[in-house]
Write a structure and sequence with these properties.
The chain is of the alpha/beta class. Helix content is 50%, strand content 11%.
Length: 389
């Protein structure tokens, strides 16, 4: 068995209604004034104000930045950082899906060390600890509340840059399943598939270890058993609880094992065409799973039996069953089966392939991948018209 290392240097608070513990958590951090980073949807719903009011009732003043967009940009990071510094806050509350949490992580770096977030691209570039973050996810998908990565779009390059450092792992994460019971159906489907892709890619990654595999499989148990029920009825609290736990475990898994070709390819799709990250992942997933079939060492069946509506025995299983099951699930969730349906064409295949090859995830994909492979996979993902068998 190869050597491996792991650590989970944070406190996670989980449970329905746990948002009420926010002021207690900030007090534990020693925070005197907090700064909420969120998005316009949550602000309009009144949830951001609810957070701020709860903090102020506990004697903790609160500033707010609620302009985070999907696929957040370097400009957004700059604005959020400036407002944080002007607020004189000493901690950040990242409230929302992966986008606000990514912006919060990026702002926490730049606010402390200066410069621009592009200066910290890559791994090992963050000098030390950042402004303390409390992450409160309102979707079950990204796992950003427990990961060491921040992904930000640089429109000057049409490129999604990644900053990776253990210093970016939020000091606290509050997971309240009640917060994901009002998520729109399409968002629930996209985020749920994002979490599933995290678990699958981390599980089959060349960097996987017994530790990460454990979290991947638990994630697939929770997500595979609940994603259909949750997307159909977000107020199904049992399904919501399972999806939130699945997303959490998948986040821990890929923090330690990285991902693979699906994420390497989906980031350029989102950067060039502004396709939601979870949608891009879902469409590309079955194509990459088929590409990786030759490198499967028995893990495909473990994935299949956790996500299949009606699993078969190991003796009856063939890898093609997993691909068909993924396609069937995507269809059930209302996600298109090709990139053309979400506005992607052949024009930028070469540029997207070049950007995909820059991703560290390519190196840990189970099957060796060259740029010509990526081009072919993009062509298939754009034009495929496969029907579920």
């Amino acid at each position: 068995m190869k050597e491996f290392e792991f650590s989970i240097p944070q406190k996670v608070v989980y449970g329905a209604g746990s948002l009420s513990k926010l002021s207690e958590v900030v007090n534990e951090l020693g925070g005197k004034k907090a700064f909420i980073i969120s998005g316009p949807h949550l602000y309009k719903m009144g949830l951001v104000s609810k957070c701020a009011e709860a903090m102020e009732e506990a004697g903790i003043a609160c500033g707010v930045f609620a302009d985070t967009e999907a696929n957040p940009s370097t400009d957004t990071v700059e604005k959020a950082t400036r407002m944080f510094i002007e607020s004189d806050a000493d901690c950040i509350i990242a409230f929302g899906g992966g986008s606000p949490i990514d912006v919060a992580k990026a702002a926490a770096i730049v606010a402390k060390y200066g410069g621009d977030i592009t200066d910290y691209e890559g791994s090992g570039t963050v000098p030390g600890s950042v402004v303390p973050i409390v992450a409160i996810p309102t979707t079950a998908g990204t796992g950003s509340e427990v990961t060491s990565f921040s992904v930000i779009t640089d429109h000057n390059r049409n490129y999604k840059l990644t900053v990776g450092s253990d210093n970016l792992i939020p000091a606290y994460a509050i997971l309240d399943p009640e917060l994901i019971t009002t998520v729109p159906q399409k968002t629930a489907a996209a985020c749920g598939m994002d979490a599933m892709v995290h678990a699958i890619e981390a599980y089959i990654s060349l960097a996987a270890s017994p530790f990460s595999e454990l979290f991947s499989l638990y994630a697939l148990d929770y997500i595979g058993g609940s994603i259909r029920d949750y997307v159909a009825d977000r107020k199904n609290i049992s399904a919501a609880e399972n999806m939130m736990l699945g997303s959490l475990f998948a986040g821990i898994a890929f923090s330690h094992a990285r991902l693979g070709n699906v994420h390497a390819m989906s980031h350029p799709v989102s950067a060039y065409y502004d396709v939601p990250h979870g949608v891009a992942n879902a469409i590309i997933l079955p194509i990459v799973v088929e590409f990786n079939m030759k490198a499967d060492a028995g893990k495909y069946y473990e994935i299949y039996k956790r996500i299949a509506a009606i699993p078969c025995s190991k003796e009856q299983f063939k890898s093609e069953k997993l691909i068909s099951e993924i396609r069937r699930l995507i269809e059930e969730l209302g996600i298109p089966n090709n990139l053309q349906a979400v506005g992607v064409d052949d024009a930028l295949i070469n540029k997207m392939s070049e950007d995909a090859m820059k991703s560290g995830n390519i190196k840990v994909n189970p099957r060796t991948t060259e740029i010509e492979d990526i081009k072919a996979l993009y062509k298939e993902a754009i034009n495929i018209q496969t029907k579920v068998s």
